[in-house]
Amino acid sequence: MLPTIAWDDDQIVMIDQRKLPAREVWVRCATATQVAKAITTMVIRGAPAIGVAAAMGIALEARRSRAAGTKQFTTEFQKTCDLLAATRPTAVNLFWGIERMKQTFAEAAAAGASVDELKTRLRSAADRIHDDDVASCRAIGRFGATLVPDTACILTHCNAGALATAGYGTALGVIRGAVEAGKRVSVLADETRPFLQGARLTAWELVRDGIDTTVITDNMAGALMRTSTIDLVVVGADRIAANGDAANKIGTYSVAVLAKEHGIPFYVAAPMSTIDLATADGSGIPIEERPEREVTHVGTSRLTPVGAKIRNPAFDVTPHRFISAIITERGIARAPFDASLRALAGQASRA
Length: 351
Ligand code: MRU
Hints:
Layout: E1 5-8, E2 11-15, E3 26-29, H1 32-40, H2 47-64, H3 70-85, H4 92-110, H5 115-145, E4 151-156, H6 171-180, E5 184-190, H7 197-208, E6 212-216, H8 221-227, E7 232-235, E8 239-241, E9 246-249, H9 252-261, E10 266-269, E11 275-276, H10 293-296, E12 297-298, E13 301-302, E14 315-318, E15 325-328, E16 331-333, H11 337-350
Parallel strand pairs: 4-5, 4-7, 5-6, 7-10, 8-11, 10-15
Antiparallel strand pairs: 1-2, 2-3, 8-9, 9-14, 12-13, 15-16
The site of 5-S-methyl-1-O-phosphono-5-thio-D-ribulose has 17 residues, from α2 and β9.
């Protein structure tokens, strides 16, 4: 399986997602500052992947600490958490990962752990977050496969694949799960302007796996829904509010509205770490505005005239009424989502 992010001795290595599919280049991070930069500049992206990267970045920085005692170590730890929390605002997995590291730290510190013990505990916690994410994606794949007909054309938007997680993927996990269950699957990958995660990353992953893949530009989805058979849409999410409203890559909302108009099931696949019960509905989800250059240029070529104003919201919110089901590692939630998501979250606290 493709390693999105991994340890290499005292460093973190990640495949540079900005360069794919043209070049497979690996970026090394020796400090949390470098990890934060990798997240901000999209070397690594995708909600679960940036949560894992933040946790690993915290463990990395803890390991290089020269703090003489726990007081100084605690100050440094807090600073690192703040640095990583400031990278991207929308995906709640980032804050979830940092919170899990803070809990680990607080429990170990309360038990009187030394600086060395704290470093070890943080490293184990980061490894667990990484491995749990892969396991969650595989479970999402198994649940999601039950929703896929034996022969299916599936449309997806953005990249919610191995590259966007610690491995296997969420939306692409459902596709992989269906293929592993013996179903005949073909995929329509929306190109996903402006960063082209669909054209570059989803297509790259699926072609590597030998899955029948067709890339379309975003504005083709409606016409194809009307004129050809698309059995279902499956996408990932960056944050799902308590009522089921789901933030995902810009353009997802348009796809969801089109799917409803054409009677096509629209599924969101995401781990529980994406569900934010503290946010009542989609209006409370912060939407990241990214640099204009992502819209004005493709590579080094300028597309737009100087003087034209530019907007670049990186995400949109799909209201829950457009969502047929939310596929998690604990099962499939359906409307009313406030009850079904809460029930799935409750399973965790009992486990
Ligand atoms: O800006 P990105 O590339 O980080 O946005 C990624 C998405 O919107 C994904 O669909 C989402 O994070 C789910 S990834 C499993």
